[in-house]
Structures are given as C-alpha cells and as structure tokens.
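User: For a benchmark we're assembling, each entry needs the component sequences followed by a predicted structure for the full assembly. Here are entry 17's components. Please fill in the structure.
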Amino acid sequence: MTDQSPVTRAGNATGVPQVGAVAVENFSFWYGAKQALFDISLNLVPREVTALIGPSGCGKSTFLRSINRMHDLLPGTRSTGRILLDGEDVLDRRLDVVQLRQRIGMVFQRSNPFPKSIYDNVAWGPRLNRRPSRSELDEIVEQALRRAALWDEVKDRLRTSALGLSGGQQQRLCIARALANEPEVLLLDEPASALDPIATQRIEELLWELKKELTIVIVTHNLQQAGRVSDRTAFFYLGQLIEYGPTDQLFTAPREERTEAYITGRFG
Amino acid sequence: MIALTVLAALLATLPLVLILGLLLKQGASSLNWAFFTAMPKPVGESGGGMANALAGTMMLIAIASAIGLPVGIGAGMYLAEHRGGRLASVVRFLSDVLNGLPSIVVGIFAWQFLVRPVKHFSALAGGIALAVMMIPLVARATEEMIRLVPNSLREAALALGYPRWRTSLTVVLRTALPGIVTGALVAVARIAGETAPLLFTAFGNQFWSTSLTQPISALPLQIFSYAISPYEEWHSLAWAGALVLLALVLVISLIARFVTRSRFGHGHD
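Assistant: Structure for entry 17:
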C-alpha cells in the first residue's frame, strides 16, 4: 500500500467509512463442464483502481461478472470459493442479489442506456431502491451526473432521449446511472473499447476522481490504459491469476515470465 | 430471372387488387349510412343494414382479445425468457401446431366444450373460439419482439438491482411493446374475418343482441347466410358486408404498420 498516490490519500481524508473491500478466496468457476476460472485469490483495495488484463478468453470478464453475480442468469454455471464484500460472501444464495447489485455498480463494454430520457436513466435505480421524493430525486440525479462529469453537458436537456447523446456521453451516462445507486464498488467491463481517444481520456480522468470514494475494478484490453488508470493490475491467463501487484511493478518488473511475455506483446 | 421474380411479386398482390375491385363494383352501391345503422329487413322489403352484425363482430373481437391477448403475451414472454428450456420448446411446437390448425376444427372444439354442455349457442363460445386462434399468433409475435430487445438492456437493469420479474416488465416488455401491439393487431385482423369457428358457436342472430350467453351475429356469418340465400337484395348486402370487412382488416393492418413505423422512428438503432 506504499504506492498510494496523493489523490488517494486526499480521498481517505474525507472521512468516508472504509467500505467496498472485496476479498476473493480460492474462487473457481464453471460454465457447465468447462472450467473458466481456477482457484483465484486476491484482494481488491478500496479507493484504488484495479485493472484486470489478459488475452481474450482468459477469464477476466467472467471474474468481473462473478463479483456482482451477473452469472445468476445463465443456466448451468457453478462456482466454489468465496468472494467477500466487506466480510459478507456475495456467493451465498441467501444473500439478496438485488441489494448486492445496488452496492456493486456495473458498466458494460457497449453503452446501454435505456431508450428513455437522460433524467429517467439516472433516476432508474434510486426510484426502485430508495423511493425518494421528487426534489430528493432531482438532487440525486444532479449529483450522479456531476460525479460522472456529464452534468454541464446535459443539464439543459435532461428530459430528452438518452439515445441522442454521443457514444462517450452515453457511457458516462451509464456510469452516472450506476453511481446514482451509491455503490461501494464499481465494475467496468472494457468501458472505453468502443470510444474514440478523447472520449476514452475523459473516462480515464473520471476514474481518477471516482476512486476517491469507490473501489474500482476495470477489465481492459488496452495495456496503456491499464498503466494509466490503475493502482494495481491482475494478469489473467487461461483462467488462472498469473500475477497480481502494484501496476508500476507489474509493468516494469514482472515476477512471472508469462506476464512479461504478455506485456511486451509476445502473445495475446 | 429478375423478370420472373417481378412477375411472381405482381401475381402475389394481384388477388387483393382484383378482390378489392370486385367488392367495390358489387358492394359499393349497397353501402350507405343505413347499412351501418339499420337492422336487417325481412325478405321482400328493400333496404336494411347489418348493424347487429357489426356490433356482434366488435363484441366477438373484444371477447377474443380480452382472453387471447393476456394469455398470448404471457406465453410469449415465457417462451422468450426461457428459450432453451424443454417446456418452452414443447409449448413453442404446440403453439405452431395450433396456429396451423384448420379453423373449423377450432369451431368444433368450442362447440363440444362450450355449446353442447349448456345446450345453446353463445357469443362467449364464439369469442373463446376466436381467442384460441389468436393465442398462438400473439404468443409467437411477442416472443420474437422480446428476443429483439438487446440483452444489454436486460443486463443494465439487472446490474442496477432490478429483480428479474421487474426487469421483464419495466425494461423488456416496455421496449418490445410497439412490436407486441403490432402483433396483436395483426392477430385481431386475422380473426375479424374468421367464419368457420363461429358457425356452431356464435351461430348468428337476425336480431340485436349484446348478451354473452345468447347467439350473436357477426359480419362473416351474415355475409355467409346472405350470400347463400336466393334473394337478390341480400346478395348485394352480402357484397357490401364483404367490402366493410375487408376495409376493417385493411384499417387494422394500416394501424399496425403505423405502430411499427413509430417504433423504428425514434432512437438511433
């Protein structure tokens, strides 16, 4: 934890209680008979960005989607091990998955706003989960849009269709929509892979801001991006966690030969 | 080759054009305000209309929709959300079979179970027979439309903490709604002109009736009985009735088109 940036420390000073710690213990995962993840153990640290990297099909997205149990929908999946969110096992069938997903927000590869107004998109989660009054809801929507660095661009057209926004704006809207639930953890599955460089940069800057308050996990194919945004990096290969450590160290002095081969572009 | 396909395309639309022309020629002269407002006159008296048949058709459509739409849409939602399941494939196959079932068979079925036990024909039996024809059409249309809803929208709602049933209702069903409405209208247009299922269920009625438990008239039934009668005046009324029926179906189809258009009108994709 010695590599924490000044920004991170400033975030801690706000006095937000330390929540959003995710501890993964011996987690394995199967799609039917095919094992996709093998005995993964790692700790995701609050107020840090953790990047998951690795070649396609290495299990990094599967791992990400296990944290908020998005796999529940797929028949025939099973898992062993534990994923603890603030000490609670998220894989416990008795745990309310609806509540869990409010605590763990998710942003997908392709922006997926509902075909509704900008306002309704952001209000979607709070409307169900907290039943706020109209003025409270206005406040929540504005805060979420501000945190997603989108407020100034959309404040005059909150009631217009979200589908009229640009790709980058749509993705930030999806981030705002997740933030409106006040999550502790934010999972991002290649959030910038469909965006142009400028829109990508805005998302990356946004993550720097958001990590003051959240645990952030980002899957990315883009190694430069992992280097820019993350404090820690986990390298997955063929369903195994090969190496996990501070991003600087993993990129400059990897312990594993396979990590070095991957980051120097010899495969993947 | 192209010329042949163009010819085939023209031949495919030719019957509709010819039918429309024939109906206009034979039926337009008998079509007046009285046709819509007056009751049938006894043989020998000129004039008269089909007000009872029009009302009957509306009522039968209402009964069929009240039963067929909820069941069909619900079944379609089930098929779409459990596409791989064994029950789903059985239901899908059976509904395709039901869809291909000759309508006279549906009529006999309704007669056996809804008319014979109570010993008289009824509007309700006719409406249910039509609902049976509607259900597979609506179910398959609903399934197709729900499948078109991108999975990413479903995931977005679930990831925000929406329970599965609520995701189905608020995101999936609402996004698919214009398509489902179109499917429902097509099904209504299809049953509006059905005659066979009504022959021994609704049966027909020369008098005004809106009772669920009494025989009721319907446009196709009235057309049928007038067309096979030996009276010239009834023949021309039958032509007019056929024209109205065709117009009704055309209007419903046009509304369905309009609803579909507005679905693709907004948004980007």
